[in-house]
Design a protein that fits this description.
six-stranded mixed sheet; 13 helices; about 20% strand
């Protein structure tokens, strides 16, 4: 369990993330990238952390059963509605008709083979429509012992997806089109046109998984890093633009993230990022943290932009549309507004998603404030929504403090100067 001090720092971090946003606005972010002329009109969609759970994995009212409720309490994601959510996004992507769809990992709830097969079927629909789909695994997708079917109040193991299975199932979505493959991982390079290459970087530690399930942390193996640097050098020599895609973040999205909330930025990120930047990498698309966030990292006068896309099963359920027009790279965000299924209370999907997340976070922060920090119950109950607002703003990507929060902080100061001091850093 984390120490009291580290928990305080993590809570602080969640609230002050707006101090670390180098490239940001509410809806659209623009950055410059030196693109070859023929890339000047290109549209790329990005969907991350789908966490798709095939409907066959909920039987005999399993969604209301004790086992599934316990799962969601420990890992609060709207996986019960993941099928309906993704079908909405799938329809929208067909309408948008991008040239390319990038999916940087965590396609499935927990790597169930049936869920991965279903996702490949969805991607094949896009491929048949002329959209090039490229994928890379996330920490949930391979060798995951948490792959289960929820049957009434109970849960039972189902077939998991091996590394070989993954490569076979998603063969049409990067692997069979690859112009280069890495022997040490599921990393690959594709070249969708004469002037653009995409490096899919496999950083997940699925070889280390055991009975407890996935390992959240990621790393790039030394041999894989050497291979990446060789690919970047070759592209640079041929004057070809390179984008990278990886599930884990390549750089921190807020100060000291890798120490304060480990498992989301790759191991040894400063060294690994610096080497790739020196080799010419400028843009990488990532996921994993369930936050919709873009950050810029500068090293030795070179800049890298890490475009992180949030999760479809975490409010506000975002996905990205990247357009390149005459060199500027414009990143816009869309969010799921409705799904084709009824929700409790017949509320709209945005209302349900926000309420679901707020409820789960209130419980989490109440627990830590009371049981880890030792705050009295009334104080924990009052302060928890402020911390909840901070992390929800980070997930949404706007990081705006609710209008009444300053007044709430003033009241909080009369109850605990320590907790108020954390919040007032804003």
């Amino acid at each position: 369990m984390k120490s009291k001090l580290s928990v305080v720092i993590i809570l602080l971090c969640q609230l002050v993330l707006s101090c670390k946003k180098d490239i940001k606005n509410n809806d659209t972010t623009t950055t410059q990238n030196t693109l070859a002329k023929k890339n000047s009109h290109l549209k790329i969609a990005i969907v991350s952390d789908i966490h798709y759970m095939d409907p066959s994995l909920l039987i005999n009212n399993g969604a209301s059963g004790a086992a599934f409720k316990n799962y969601v309490d420990q890992d609060p994601k709207m996986v019960q509605y993941s099928d309906a959510i993704f079908r909405n996004v799938l329809a929208d992507i067909k309408t948008e008709h991008p040239d390319i769809l990038l999916v940087p990992g965590n396609f499935t709830k927990d790597g169930e083979k049936v869920s991965n097969i279903a996702m490949a079927g969805f991607f094949n629909q896009l491929r048949n429509d002329g959209i090039k789909v490229y994928v890379i695994p996330g920490n949930h997708d391979i060798n995951n012992a948490k792959a289960k079917v929820f049957d009434g109040d109970n849960a039972y193991p189902v077939d998991i997806t091996s590394k070989t299975d993954f490569e076979t199932i998603y063969g049409n979505f990067g692997y069979s089109q690859a112009i280069a493959r890495n022997a040490n991982s599921l990393s690959y390079v594709v070249q969708p046109n004469d002037h653009l290459r995409i490096i899919g970087i496999d950083a997940s530690k699925y070889e280390e998984y055991g009975p407890a399930g996935d390992v959240a942390a990621g790393r790039i193996k030394p041999a894989t890093l050497t291979w990446i640097l060789d690919q970047l050098a070759a592209a640079k020599q041929q004057n070809i633009t390179v984008f990278a895609m990886m599930h884990h973040n390549l750089v921190e999205h807020y100060a000291n993230q890798s120490q304060l909330d480990p498992g989301y930025v790759i191991d040894d990120w400063q060294n690994v990022a610096a080497q790739q930047m020196e080799a010419g990498l400028k843009i990488i698309f990532t996921g994993h943290y369930h936050a919709n966030d873009i950050t810029s990292y500068v090293h030795n006068g070179k800049e890298l932009v890490d475009v992180q896309t949030g999760s479809l099963v975490t409010a506000p359920s975002p996905y990205r549309i990247v357009t390149i027009k005459d060199n500027p790279l414009e990143v816009s965000t869309k969010t799921v507004q409705s799904i084709a299924t009824s929700l409790p209370g017949n509320v709209s999907f945005p209302v349900y998603a926000k309420t679901f997340l707020a409820h789960q976070l209130d419980g989490y922060f109440n627990y830590y404030l009371a049981n880890v920090l030792g705050a009295p119950a009334p104080l924990a109950s009052y302060a928890a929504p402020m911390f909840r607002n901070g992390i929800m703003a980070h997930f949404a990507g706007d990081e705006k403090m609710p209008p009444d929060q300053r007044k709430q902080i003033a009241v909080l100061a009369t109850m605990s100067e320590q907790l108020a001091g954390i919040v007032t850093v804003l």
